[in-house]
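Notes from the 1:1 (GR / supervisor)

We went over the backlog. Supervisor wanted to see one worked example end to end before approving the batch request, so GR pasted a single chain during the call. The sequence is below; no edits were made to it. Supervisor asked that the structure be written out right there so they could see what the output format looks like.
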Amino acid sequence: MSSLPDPAQNAPITTTLPSDSPLVKEPPRQLLSKPSWIGPLPQPRSKETDQPTMKSHVRLSYSSAGLCPPVYVITSMSEPKWEPVEMEFTQKEDGHCDFYKEFEPEEGQHQFKYRLGPGDWWALDESKQIGQ
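Structure output shown during the call:
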């Protein structure tokens, strides 16, 4: 007598595959291309874009009574960023100096601070918004 189920009873047959079966270990297949009805494969995008980055012209200026050169600005707008850049200046007849430096940074928010002289004296331009 056999132990097979009677086909007349429509009983389900369950099978357990051995662990060394190629059906168990085969990784899922990945399509190398899309079916033709979906369209062409997308081309990989490079990190470089063909569109130019928007830049704007920024002029930072600082003055204080009795201040003499050099005055530096340290900013996220310079290349390399956060390196001291000596500011240019114009001197008035009374000896007062107006310091300025021009940048063309990419659009966005930028930060800067002024260093007075070669030491560790920092100045805050109170006419500008302060970041938190």
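Supervisor's comment: The two ends are 86 Å apart (CA to CA).
Batch request approved.
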